[in-house]
């Protein structure tokens, strides 16, 4: 079958403004959209820029907007799409070229929540261990591949007045450490998150959960951070 792709193009070094270019590709229903983009780059237009690495929903590098919804082209089968597909870069972040956006603001917010285990007490012999139940709490959050689809789909991050909100991806990672039984920095983490730009920036709009390609219940995890902060404050009141 033939499939038509309408792709956002913009090379700031050459183009005055963005435009859309149409490509026609031969594809099997079981091909992924990423296969079609690769085919275009290899056989028709080597100037088309997009990121990819693993090709299997693991690295999170190929986030883009497909028919208006953020997702991973390596997970989109052609048979799930129509005969013409609109392909655009992730919103919210500045375009570097075509489908490649500058993710530095995304990773800056991610770093702001201290995305690492903090354990000041002397380590036990061997590993810092946790029980299967304690580990189970983290089972959704650890699936995050930092693709940025949630943050770029969030209406709060899309609003220029509230774009300083840390965003759902950073909050998923914050959950992963705040709820980790081995972490000893809860007070410092809560101080970072207990702000309008932190967890209270979330307006429970569910867009993040709708688009997450790893099916992480993002909004629910953010809700659990809010509850944890509320309970911590109640204890110290
Ligand atoms: Fe991507 Fe889901 Fe992680 Fe957000 S929570 S960055 S959508 S994997
Ligand atoms: Fe790695 Fe899609 S190419 S997640």
Commentary on this structure:
The chain is α+β, with helices and mostly antiparallel strands. The chain has nine helices and seven strands, in the order E-E-H-E-E-E-E-E-H-H-H-H-H-H-H-H. The strands form two sheets. It has a five-stranded mixed sheet. Strands 6-7 form a two-stranded antiparallel ribbon. A hairpin with a 2-residue loop joins strand 3 and strand 4. Bound molecules: iron/sulfur cluster and FE2/S2 (inorganic) cluster. Iron/sulfur cluster (SF4) binds next to helix 4 and helix 6.
Beta content comes to 5-15%
What is the overall shape?
elongated
| Major sheet strand order | 2-1-5-3-4
The profile of the biggest β sheet is:
5 strands, mixed
Radius of gyration over C-alpha positions, nearest whole angstrom: 20 Å
Helix content: 25-40%
Unreliable sequence segments? none
Distinct small-molecule ligands in the complex:
iron/sulfur cluster, FE2/S2 (inorganic) cluster
Structural class: alpha+beta
Order of helices and strands: EEHEEEEEHHHHHHHH
Mean pLDDT: 96
Count, helices:
9
Give the CA-CA distance, first to last residue.
65 Å
Question: How many E strands?
Answer: 7
């Amino acid at each position: 079958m033939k499939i038509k792709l309408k792709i956002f193009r913009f090379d700031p070094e050459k183009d005055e403004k963005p435009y859309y270019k149409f490509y026609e590709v031969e594809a099997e229903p079981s091909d992924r959209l990423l296969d079609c983009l690769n085919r275009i780059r290899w056989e028709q237009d080597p100037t088309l820029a997009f990121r990819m690495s693993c090709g299997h929903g693991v690295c999170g590098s190929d986030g883009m907007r497909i028919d208006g919804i953020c997702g991973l082209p390596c997970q989109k089968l052609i048979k799930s799409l129509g005969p013409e597909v609109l392909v655009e870069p992730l919103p919210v972040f500045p375009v570097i070229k075509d489908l490649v956006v500058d993710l530095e603001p995304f990773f800056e917010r991610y770093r702001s929540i201290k995305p690492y285990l903090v354990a000041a007490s002397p380590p036990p012999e061997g590993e810092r261990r946790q029980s299967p139940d304690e580990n189970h709490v983290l089972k959704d959050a650890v699936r995050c591949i930092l693709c940025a689809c949630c943050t770029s789909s969030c209406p709060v991050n899309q609003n220029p007045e509230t774009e300083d909100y840390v965003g759902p991806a950073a909050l998923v990672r914050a959950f992963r450490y705040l709820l980790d039984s081995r972490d000893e920095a809860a007070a410092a983490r809560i101080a970072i998150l207990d702000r309008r730009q932190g967890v209270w920036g979330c307006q429970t709009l569910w867009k993040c959960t709708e688009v997450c390609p790893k099916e992480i219940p993002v909004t629910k995890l953010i809700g659990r951070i809010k509850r944890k902060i509320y309970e911590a404050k109640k204890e110290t009141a």
